[in-house]
Structure prediction request, 572 residues.
Amino acid sequence: MHGKIGKGIGNKVIFVFLCIWALVQIFPIYWMFTFSLKDNSEIFGKNMIGLPHVWRWSNYIDALKVGNIGRYFLNSVFVTVATIMITTICALLATYALTRMEWKGQKLANSLIMLGLTVPIHAAILPVFIVLKKFHMTNSYWALIIPYAAFALAMAILICESFIEGVPRELEEAACIDGCGVYGIFVRIIIPMMRPCLSTVAIFTFLQAWNELMFAVTFISDSKFRTLPVGIQTLCGSYTTDWGPIGAALVIATFPTLLIYCFMSEKIQESMAAGAVKG
Amino acid sequence: MNRVRRNKTAIILFIIPTLILFCTIIIVPIFMDVYYSFFKWNGMTAPEFIGADNYIELFSSKAMGFPRTIKNAFILAGLSVFIQLPISLFMAIVLARGVKWEKFFVALFFTPVLISTVVIGQLWLKMYNPQYGIINSFLRLVGLDNLCRTWLGDGRTALPAVFVPILWQYIGYHMLLLYAGVKSIPEELNEAAKIDGANSWQIARLITIPNLKPTLQVCTIFAITGSLKAFDLIYVLTGGGPAHASEVPSTLMVDMIFGRSRYGIGSTIAVFIIFLCFFFAVLIKKVFKTEVD
Prediction:
């Protein structure tokens, strides 16, 4: 029963099963890539799941030109990069103050921030909307960047806090003896030592900001500020008949994530697992 | 050094940006939600205090159907815990035990998690398309024409049809967390069990799963609170329709606030979502704690 042969067959069954499951998980994505290069007659019957007979790159040009996907893409890049920068800077500063400095209310501030992990983003939607409307800021990049940064902060601080534990306090003390003030210690010791965990924070924040829909769809009505998720929603709503360019738009929105994933898949997996386990 | 660590100006400078962001965007809005939930307000005219009327309407109004959205969210939570998690757990254990192309499979299964939910939603929308969609075409191809449906447009199938992509997308996420968990179990434990003559099933049941408790707790919390918060895929696929058949609390909230300008009742729904998320996070931690004892 537990002989080599039995085990060999068992492993083969499992391997085949994993391959089938891989197909289930990856098929929609494969299908998206192929239909982004087809025209309706192929998508609708002649060649539903095969590779395209004619590779119609013109679909991509249509998506960029008619669908304005290029503009949405740049908006998404801007919003995401700004969110990552604000989140990282705030998280680094706060982590240092929360873990290495000594002050009253430190514990309270820490538990307040941990509370933020459980608060759903839904809680903020109406109050933030009311405030933004009052200041006529609903159609702006900041309407998205500030809430995204706020909601990414709790996780970012959590990741940084667990990382800073590994930075020896002796380093700071040595720098202090050499005449470094608190700002010097922070800039010369803490920031360089924390560099490895910044990519984890950046990956987390990137995924959140790049894919967020609820805020983007309710706060932004001006097409100038639409991010990709909203842009795709509108594109698909108005061009229902022509599937090719829609597929192209979907690929354009997915491509950066997949490209980054190809080059740093293990780092990304590590980041996602690390953040969760600590939460 | 102590003087450095107690430098008041530095502390304030360091913590202030975070506290401001945090309080204005996360903490204060919770109180604002609670406050507005006692008012009837359309955002234009002056708010009118109506006491607990919003709460009463939420649970008694048939037209709005809030209890049904809660029921739908609970069904999704149940499916996540009892279908999604077991599949993920099985995959994680099989993969972590070491198979050919282990790293490749992990990377592949995780891919859907990274893709924007709007993209996933639009893809499934196309696959569900009653005329040209892959699903109906496949059914016709194998001669099961009578099983063809307008999946998302039919009140009976809409709910399961939106749940499938949600479960499908995040299986890889739970798998990854559990996989990392299995990998962190010391190899000696497995070796010792093998020497004692345990087979793979016994190792999984007696060693892997008990050692995975902390990860399973995290996964359960994510699965349940995630279901209570679910919005993106439902919004893209059905918008809560047809006739509210696939409505969940968050789609109803967005509809009330931005579709009908009913800010008061929208806040009341927000209060409920916040409450449920906290409630279940605490409850699950309690359940796992008592089990360990």
